[in-house]
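Morning F.,

Quick status update on the modeling queue. The single chain you submitted on Monday has been processed. Sequence for confirmation:
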Amino acid sequence: MWSDELARARLHVVTGKGGTGKTTVAAALAVALATGGRKTLLIEVEGRQGIAHLFDVPPLPYQERRIAVAPGGGEVRALAVDAEEALLEYFALFYNLGFAGRTLRRMGAIEFATTLAPGLRDVLLTGKVKEATTRARDGIHNYDAVVLDAPPTGRVVRFLDVTRAMADLAKVGPIHSQSKGVVRLLHSADTAVHVVTLLEDLPVAETLETVAELDRADLRPGAVLINRARPSRLPQQWATTTNNATGSANGQVDADRVRTGLLASGLDLDAAVVDGLVTETVEHAMRMHAEQQARARLADAGMPLIELPDLTDIGGDGVDLGGIYELSDVLHSQGVR
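Structure tokens below.
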């Protein structure tokens, strides 16, 4: 369940192995955090316009736009951070170079700089995330929470921690001050890094590696968000009895007993159909057994585990807008505030 410590975080970084649905989960989290009249900002940094696609709105500009309302009068805004625009904004804010920055852009210098130094690009992106998270007026933050749809697990720690190196390189001036501010935010209790996973071997292994890497970098792990969790179709007593569950997963299902049970229920099926049902039972038991083992491995990480149901059938290839709200309700029911 969502802990009190996570409820106090202001920046929620969402990462996950490619294909786990991290953008969908980030969107649902933003809606859940806005429930009850709160205001959240959902940020993407990978240039894919995934948020616009999920919420069925036009491509997002480099401006904060309202994209959804949440139950109880809350509001979700979204921002697609562009590295070039962020650098121009940086020039204007800290060096009074608004006009000169636009000239550099026309010359292609901005694109050249961000391409030549990928680390610079990440510094600009995390700098904008920090600005949006800490922005306040009269002591009141503009947003109650910020949700960042971050890069995948393979590079999220490098993305979040690249600014520390920049702060060490620039010893004085605006770059140093800005970089130190980003580092303070990302390494503070105001930030939580959530990992989206599936109950499959590779995503689980990568999740555990990422949690360990976050710990080594002194970044704060948040919750493990298990996406597309499927309910067991085995009877509860059967599924929770070790001998039954293990036996089914090993193919030890008594076809005659199944046939007798079906007859007692008034279903007289031919042998081929019963054999097919037995095969499906074994396959399902094997999957449930593997998923229980995956849950146990994730539990060892010591992070809150939150499960989200499999809604991929709703929207065909992915979750539709209604599915986002359904997932946000599930998150809210598990304590997300």
